[in-house]
Amino acid sequence: MKNYRERVKKIMLQSEYLLSLKATAIYIIAIIIGIMFSLASIYRAISFLAPIGFIFGSFLVLLLIIIAGPMIDEINEGHIQLYLATGLSRLEYVASWYIVAVVYPVLAIFLAIVLPVLIIDPSSLFTRISPYSQRLVPTMLTFAFAISLQLLNNVSLGFLFGLVRKSKGAAYLVATFLAFLLPFILSVVISILGILTGYYEGYHAIYLLMLPFDPLWSYNVFSYGPIYLSETTILIPPIVTTIFSLILILNHAKHRLEV
Question: Which of 71, 107, 108, 215 has CB 3.0 to 4.6 Å from 30, enough for a Cys bridge?
Fold first, then answer.
């Protein structure tokens, strides 16, 4: 238990050091989002802002994975040895970077969405917004959780592939694929099949490939049409994917990371 507490203490101390270097970018992102949702709450325009949040969330995936880029540079250039020489383990080093590049920003973004609404009009948190179909419309709180979960999921996967390949390009490619290319590719495939067969709804199930990665997209797609999913069904797969990604990240850092 003592070793566990010491390890957590090291991770948090290293995270605080890294956060001091990366805090500006995180704060700027959070402040911009906070202002947007504050104004939307004041003018009751959450339903207008939510689709923008859907698009903005995709760009945030890329911004957050960029924050993790210096970690890969430090590993490739050997600078990680300076940290290891102070007694920091590979696991503690990677975990501290994960907290700063993934956990802290996502938490800041979630609070930036929720707190302005909570202060200005608390009831809005539990009011269903309306950028989606009438069949499944999330509350403001659920929307904030979904966009935060999507960021956590996509950035974690980009972080994992970048760490394993020791390549920023791999991290950026995975993040870009999940945030932009996968929804586009699936839509094109379904459109082509629909044109060829004249039966679009028959291929709607292809969108299920998005379930483990993109809850916002799933809200949009599976709130109408031939396949209807509950909120629980939409949110659980990306939660499982994120947990699995984190386990792989920590396992790779502890047993496979070569420096």
Answer: 108
User: How many other CB atoms are there within 10 angstroms of residue 59's CB atom?
Assistant: 11
Instruction: Tell me the C-alpha to C-alpha distance, in Å, between residue 52 and each of 37, 38, 131, 213, 250.
Output: 11, 14, 10, 19, 34
Strand (E) or helix (H) holding 170:
helix 168-176
Q: Which residue has the tokens 């904030």?
A: 144
Residues 6+ away with beta carbon under 8 Å from 207:
186, 190, 217, 218, 221, 222, 227
The separation between CA 138 and the C-alpha centre of its own chain, rounded to angstroms, equals: 18
Give per-residue pLDDT as tens, 1-20.
Answer: 557 778 888 888 888 788 77
CA 72 – CA 77 distance, rounded (Å): 8
222-250, pLDDT tens digit by residue?
876 678 888 899 999 999 999 999 999 99
Of the candidates 240, 116, 222, 98, which has an alpha carbon nearest to the alpha carbon of residue 171? Answer: 98
CA-based nearest residue to 230, from 242, 219, 239: 219
